[in-house]
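ok so I'm stuck.
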Amino acid sequence: MIISPPFLPTRANNAEDAAYVAAAMPAATVNCPASSVPEGSFPVSLNLGWHGGVHLHAPAQAGTALPLCAIADGEIVYARRPTAQVAEPTHALNYNPYGEAAAWTDDGMVIVRHRTETGAGANAEDIEFYSVFAHLSALRGNALVVAGGNATAAQRRIFRKDEIGVAGRIYNAADHLHMEIVCDDANLNKLVGRRTGTLPLTADGRADAVYGEVYFHVPAGAALYGGNQPAGHTQTPASAAIETTTTDLIIGMRYASGDGAAAQRGSAWMTTYQLDGTRIGAPLEDDDADYDMYTRANNISEHYVGGRPAPSAVYEMLRFGRLLAGSAETLTPANCPHWRRVQGNQQIGWINLAAAGIRKFSDADFPHWKGWRLVDDDADDDSRSESAMLRALIEDASNADGQLTREEMVTRMGIPAVRDALAKCICRFPSEWNRDSIDARWGWLQSDPEYGLDAESWTRLRSHISALTVPAAELPAPLVAAHWHFHPQQFITHFRKCHWLSAREFKQLVPRHAMRRHQGQYLWEEILTNLTAATSAAVTQRVGLNRTARKFGINSPLRLASFLGNGIQETQWLGRLSEGGGSGYWYAPWYGRGFLQLTHSSNYLDYWAFRGRQVPAALSQAMRAALTVQMDLPTAQRSSATLADANFPQLTPQIRGWREEVRGVAMAGSTDSGYAPSDSAGFYWAKLRMASYADADHVLERRAITAGEATRVYYRSPSFWRASAAVNLPSRINDLYAAALNGYDARCVAYACSLAVLSEVRFPNAAGAATFAFPEGYEYRRN
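replied:
not stuck anymore, here's the structure
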């Protein structure tokens, strides 16, 4: 899932992603009367009326409110042009719930259906949710076309960051809108992993979708040890434990994954929580844990004298605490320890998080200790919240009686911590936009002792609601019945940790045109790769690429763009998984295969060692020696004759099959052809610490060249150069833009396209101003 805020301000340097989303989605600037509570709070008002979304104030840039943009790819299923504002005080849209003066509310509206994925497997694929935007003063782009009627299917399509409209007025407050994110029961189960209750702790959590912070449920009685980290194979240190935990604990493990302050983008943090989410002590930072994981995995493996676990499996354990569904690895021995330095009940010490009885989870499980609650205990169809769960959450626990007066609501919801807790609630109740249910939703206001609306007041209110709502027949079916509501900012912040690419998202990464040098000149050529055929790498390798990105922490827009900018170009725009003409090169048959062109016998052998595959020592030594002889010769004198398979009798059909699987060729009895092409690239990524280069700030440089008899533009950055050179030209990594790196400018085309699809980066124009949402002169791939 690729998702972004509905407004896209410039991101401050070193801003953590959650802080950026919060800045892009400021709450309403007006408060409810006589309170400090923002108007339009989620999920209830001060009158305990259900409110399915939040009111946002469009942030301004250069003195102008930013336009509303699509938060993800989707389809516009409903759009309504706003009514022109009039002064007539009795107009239905001039209704004022807080006084007698006319207060205009815009009625422009757009509903978008989104389909996405968060992982592999039936419960993580084909996920559907809706974003709802109300109180728009203008529509733009395809939303305006749809509102006009008779839109084609193509005109209903919308893509992330496309402009939808302009925030309007809510009770006369300008530049405001209402936003919701909703889904039905079946899709809640896919998004959250359950439909009710808290997260069970009797088994490991989801393995189809895993992202964000990883958690370990540690039952009471776990041992913590002092001193230095125990050896990688040690089950029980010789020294006595310094603490035996007295309560169940949750240990959170979070990798920065390139986010936040520059010096900490490769760090991991270990945080200890009580089961209610209360933190114990401060998070413990593990410097460069992400960048050093390849080395740590190999060190753990090497501590075993015999029966070593595959470093690749250890690496996955260090990342997730376990091996995930779809992994091609097996952790042998299964009890390989996982030592981490953590805060216990009292002491800081080393704990084995692979010990028996410890369960593993991630943010994909929406764990209750992080505040997530499924609120489904209000069964009627009116607009009043009668949820005991919500009342208990709002009330002051020291003085709770199960009742909430307006005065109590004003006091309690004025407390930021209470509003933060409510923002983690996922609530099931009927839509407020169904015009056919107005009487059922709001009719109680006529007879309620507190409100008791007279006939005239009810008529005015009903007319106002009718003007803002939609006939049931025009609403998507899931929005007519009761459905689930998420706090939009929390939903977006949460799922920006995922980065699993759906098929539609993935193919957008491939540019429509690319440049290449030929006889000293640049060519500008259309990319004709078939991205939808059953045999296309975009189809056969997408899940493998997603799993590789998840396993190796290639899970930020900048990391993904750095990885895919190389991988897409090296595979000739996903056209092939081996080096063109490779069989004729001096290093054949060990020519480049996979997404980052695993090349030379030594690198194949290192990759198989990482995978735990057994290659006879004599064969390995002979192949490495033969390669060294050739590498020591001048290039013109090198020959593939001494590297030929026939020279190595111990090179079995199985080993040759492993080599072919790296280029996606299926071998009998193996499924590695959908895994090895990307996993081998992940091996390069980890071994060569490519993340450390991709995590540096990406300062984009606009380059104009002549190609195809026209001026063309591409974008490069020192960060992308170093990430590319790390795997292709390591000896020149600090020699920026050295011509010896083959096809770097073409890689930059794929890099920029990936950046545009994956991030909110804006590209500089000729004057250096960051103005373009998509690279200048490039064409979207949106068919």
